[in-house]
Each structure stands twice: as C-alpha cells, then as structure tokens.
Amino acid sequence: MALNNPAFNNPAFQDPRAVQTYPGGSQAAGIGGQTQFATTQSAATDAAAQAQLEGMYAAPAAGAIETDRMTVEDTVWKTVGLFAILLVTAVAGWIWTLAPVSVANPSPTMMPWIIGGIGGFVMAMVVIFGSRKKIRPALIFGYAAFEGLFVGGISAFFEFLYPGIVMQATLATLAVVGVTLALFASGKVRASKKATKIFMIAMIGYLVFSLLNLVLMWTNIIPADMAFGLHSYKLFGWLPLGVVIGVLVVIMAAYSLVLDFDQVQQGVRNGAPRQFAWLAAFGIMVTVIWLYVEILRILAIVRGSN
User: Residue 273: CB partners within 8 Å, gap ≥ 6?
Assistant: First the structure.
C-alpha cells in the first residue's frame, strides 16, 4: 500500500515476511506460532509439565523490554516522550519570538519559526533516509526539538496577531486526533487501498497548489495585502478559499493518522524490533504537527477575513 508518511516506508511496517530476517524470527516476534502443548497423553499427566504450564500462565505477559519487540504500548510511551521534548522547546521558541516586542519594536521575530522549520526538515530527511540502515533515536530527539522551536515560534507569532488562536488550534487538534483514534480503535475506520489512492491524488494536488501559491507570492504576482496568497481569495465573495482547502487538508491529515495507526499495528504483527517504535512515534509526530499547523492556518484565515 502506498503511504503518505515516509516514516513508515520500511519493510518492518509493510512486509510480514520481513520478520524472518530479525533475530529470533517469527517465534521471537510472537506471530504465526501457537503454544506448544505436550505431544502425548501421558505428558499431560506429568507433574513437572503441569507445574511448568501453571507457571507460564501465572507469569505476566511479556512486554517490549522482555521480547525486544515493538508493541503498541511502547510506541505510545515513546510518542509521549517526543511530544514532551517538543513542548519544552516550544516554550523556548514562544519566549524567543515575543522577546523583542516592545513599544519601539512592536513586531515579534520570526527566527525561531525559520530555524525550527529548516532544522526540523533537515532532521526529518536524515531520519527517513537513514532508517533503512539504522534507527538513531538521538536524531529523532533532535527533530522533536527543532519542531518544538518551529511550533512555538509560529504559535507565538499568530497568537500575537490573533489572541486566543493557539488555544483554539490546540483544542481542535486534540479533538481531531482523539476522534480519529477512537474511531480506529473501535474498528469503524480503517485504511483501504481505494481510499489511500484517493488520498495520494489529493496530496499531490495540494502540493502543486502550495508550490504555485509560494511562487506567486515570491514573484509579487499576488497582492501584498493577501497574507496567505491564493488562500485569501474568497469564493462567492465571502468564503475564503483557504478555509475550504484547509478543511480538506485536515481531513487528509486525519486519514494520514489512520494510516499511521494501521502501520503501527502492522509493525507489531510483523514482530518488528523494539527500536522501530521510535520510528513509528516519529511518523505520528510528523502527522500531528502537520494537522496542528493546518488548523492554525484555517483559524488565522478566518480571523483575518473578519
């Protein structure tokens, strides 16, 4: 299945046979095999075998540390850890952005936004292209730190322009992530090949639109008073085009989350090594940040058009 999130473009998340190349094979991964019972009727009555079975059932379930395999729980905790790093640097980015603001200089700085965005992009490329050889958690930590700087900077910038917008964007993001996770966990929403193809076509169209918007803004073809470029055009004289596109992008980001969750489950079923949980957490973070920025932009367009 073609995936939107390159973080999951790894055999460990896609090819069930990939587990055979891992130390311990499918038996260590806990897939494809069944509990081995006594092969004869007499062994069932053997006291030693009975005691061993009782001990096995009484023992707690093996986790990621004991099996050195990827689990959903371990992935969740790693994701939480990455977002903790992001929040710390986001605070730094927020303070840095608003530090120059004064009566003499009423404008916030964009440096945290720029540095965090560029640094996060570079780190993401290194993580994605380097993950096929070796997964380095330190690089993923660096990505989270840079993205925190970016998120904190862009959030402070928009909060300065539209007070209260960051809280609205944060609550909306949490709502979308929560609803998507709940629907996925209940089995009501699942990724499909047809939906993924449509998603990929929509993503390509959105990328083309975004590049065109940037080119028109850089060449000053779009009026300077249209801060969001083509997004600022209004349909029917009142509905900003950016809001319509933004809603569609939020839907795409939500479906991207479904794909991410599906790939996490696939990695667990394939018996992927525990280190792949870092890569899964990285992929989920990429999608959630994308979702937050898009919601923030939608709100800014709406607030700016009033």
Answer: 12, 22, 23, 68, 69, 70
pLDDT in tens, the chain (306 residues): 444 577 776 666 766 655 555 444 444 444 444 444 444 444 444 555 455 545 544 545 555 666 778 999 999 999 999 999 999 999 999 999 999 887 777 789 999 999 999 999 999 999 999 877 889 999 999 999 999 999 999 999 999 999 999 999 999 999 999 999 999 989 888 888 888 888 999 989 988 988 888 888 788 787 766 667 777 777 777 777 888 888 999 999 999 999 999 999 999 998 889 999 999 999 999 999 999 999 999 999 888 776
End-to-end CA distance of the chain: 43
Closest to 131 (Cα-Cα) out of 286, 279, 259: 279
Q: How far is CA 260 from CA 3, 8, 63, 104, in A?
A: 9, 7, 21, 47
Torsion of CA 124, 126, 127, 132, to 10 degrees: 140
25: Cβ contacts below 8 Å, ≥ 6 apart? 19
Q: How far apart are CA 56 and CA 46, in angstroms?
A: 16
Q: How far apart are CA 255 and CA 265, in angstroms?
A: 15
Produce one character per residue of 230-266: b if its CB has 16 or more CB atoms within 10 Å, e if not.
bbbeeeeeeebbbbebbeebbebbbbbbbbbbbbbeb
Domain boundaries, the chain: 68-305
Tell me, what amino acid is at 196? T
H helix or E strand, kind and range, residue 78: helix 72-98
Task: Supply 271's token pair.
Answer: 């018996």
Question: pTM here?
Answer: 0.79
| Max intra-chain CA distance, the chain | 91
Tokens of 32: 């494809």
Amino acid sitting at position 29: A
